[in-house]
Amino acid sequence: MSTTPDDTVVVGRIGRPHGVRGLVTVEVRTDDPDLRFTAGAVLLTEPAERGPLTVVTARWHSGSLLLQLATPDGAVVGDRETADALRNTRLLVPVEALPELDDPDVFYDHQLVGLSARLPDGTVLGEVDGVRHEGAETLVVRRTEGGELLVPFVSAIVPTVDVAGGFLVVDPPEGLLDL
After folding, report:
1. Are 161 and 107 within 8 A, CB to CB?
2. Percent of the chain's residues with pLDDT above 90
3. Which residue from 156, 162, 12 is spatially nearest to 90, judged by alpha carbons?
4. Closest C-alpha among 107, 101, 98, 108 to residue 160
5. Cα atoms in the 13 Å half-sphere on the side-chain side of 23
């Protein structure tokens, strides 16, 4: 169960240290990492007592984002042990810091999580528990009868998303519900 405050969204998770000078790898969970992880960006953390953290430097190395961070007291994380102590820290930004979306068919993950997933006839499949971004976007639906269902987030399969109404419609191709 997530304890992320409703007014923030996760943009990354700190992974293992990189080298001995305090750099950390980041599992990116935003579609605009160059904006979110720019030098000087202040990121809230979960657990909260580890932050906020300030990005000192950011660079890409072999497909991984590497950050040098500064702690709330302004001290730069400069060694592997201190960097390792930040492992698994989730990096957050306030929802109000997110730009408005111009396309009515584009959604932030936090808008989708918690929506009821229904079939076209209104039968409830479950609740959207997460969104995966591994290649194509995939909704993770926690089924009402237990287990999870992975639903490709494309308009042919998810023709309706009603954020205000609290639901989305899944029109599954044959066999999808059997997986």
Report:
1. yes
2. 62
3. 12
4. 107
5. 14
Looking at residue 76, the DSSP 8-state letter turns out to be: B
Is the separation of the CB atoms in 18 and 27 below 8 Å?
no
| 52 and 43 Cβ atoms separated by less than 8 Å | yes
Are 129 and 117 spatial neighbours (Cβ–Cβ below 8 Å)?
no
Report the SS3 class of residue 176: helix
CB 119 within 8 A of CB 126: no
Kindly report, residue by residue over 41-90, the tens digit of the pLDDT.
999 999 999 999 999 999 999 989 999 999 999 999 999 999 999 999 99
pTM: 0.64
Task: Give yes or no for residue 33 having a pLDDT over 60.
Answer: yes
Average pLDDT over residues 136-142: 89
Concatenated DSSP letters of 33-61: HHHHTSTT-EEEEESGGG--EEEEEEEEE
| Total residue count of the chain as it appears in this document | 179
Q: What's the rounded Cα separation, in Å, for the pair 56 and 42?
A: 10
Closest CA to 58 of 50, 47, 66, 70: 66
Helices (H), the chain: 33-36, 80-85, 109-112
pLDDT, the chain, mean: 88
